[in-house]
Specification:
By secondary structure, the protein is an alpha+beta fold. It has seven helices and four strands. The two termini are 22 Å apart.
Length: 142
């Protein structure tokens, strides 16, 4: 199996509202991850429910969906050596309070729900998540 892989990243509304899109993307690029595709879009409730379907039934699920519903996000696919693991290390712990300094969440986020960014945590997650936002033909490399 090749070590080069793809990962799905979504910059949450809080990232856009705070003007951090360029800062966040530049951290991935400086590490050497390549942007395969990127788009701005308005998140529908259905998309939010599908993205976070693994949390359905948990006490925070509805709040999570509401923070995304009808708001603008940036969806992107990154590619590189062990991209899923590398991206998650750059991003930091889900709860910004526990995120190490030097990570995106450690440096820039405060709130647990609006923690700036979502990233696939496994190949299985990537394969499920990217299809919510992208068509396969959008990810073909030139």
């Amino acid at each position: 199996m090749s070590e080069v892989e793809r990962t799905f990243i979504m910059l949450k509304p809080s990232c856009l509202e705070r003007g951090l899109v360029g800062e966040v993307i530049s951290r991935f690029e400086r590490k050497g991850l390549k942007i395969v595709q990127v788009k701005f879009l308005k998140m529908t409730r259905r998309m939010a429910e599908e993205l976070y379907s693994i949390h359905r039934g948990k006490d925070f699920y509805e709040k999570l969906v509401r923070t995304l519903e009808n708001k603008r996000v940036v969806a992107m696919i990154l590619e590189g050596r062990k991209a899923i693991l590398v991206a998650r290390k750059i991003i930091g712990a889900t709860d910004p309070v526990n995120a190490e300094p030097g990570t995106i969440r450690g440096d820039l986020a405060i709130d647990l729900t609006e923690n700036l960014i979502h990233a696939s945590d496994s190949l299985e997650s990537y394969l499920r998540e990217y299809k919510i936002f992208f068509k396969d033909e959008e990810l073909e490399t030139l």
